[in-house]
Amino acid sequence: RPNPVFKRGCRAEGAMKSEKALSLLGDTLYISGDVSFDSAAGLIRQLDKLPLNDVRRLDCNGIAHSDSAAVGLLLYLQRRAIPLQGVNPPLQGLLNLYDVTGFFPALQSE
Q: 3-class SS at 65?
């Protein structure tokens, strides 16, 4: 029997497959849709074009589907000193699985 922890990616409960989206509203960067191997490189290219100097928080509650590429994307943003706030349970599960929550100080208090 396959181990359910190692299924291919995680989808937020009730989420339908959706397009990736980045939104910069005020000082918050929102990521929504699917963040996977298929979309992560394109998201990084889009991020590199955005004015991220004034971003104070990252909200990932809108991510519908994620896999380990989403974890890599979040670590990429963390290196740019954009604090992660707002994570849905499937993405939190991946962060726990890969034991990287220590890289995101805001998650330590949640």
A: strand
Strand-pair category, 10-11 with 21-25: unpaired
Distance CA 65, CA 34 (A): 5
Q: For 9-23, how does the pLDDT look when each residue is reduced to its tens digit (9 = 90+)?
A: 444 544 444 456 899
Instruction: Supply 72's token pair.
Output: 């890599």
Q: Are 98 and 10 in contact (CB under 8 A)?
A: no
The DSSP element (H or E) to which 8 belongs, if any, is none
- CB neighbourhood size of 39 (10 A): 20
Quote the pTM value. 0.77
Number of H helices and number of E strands within the chain?
Answer: 4, 4
- Residues 61, 66: Cα–Cα separation, whole Å: 11
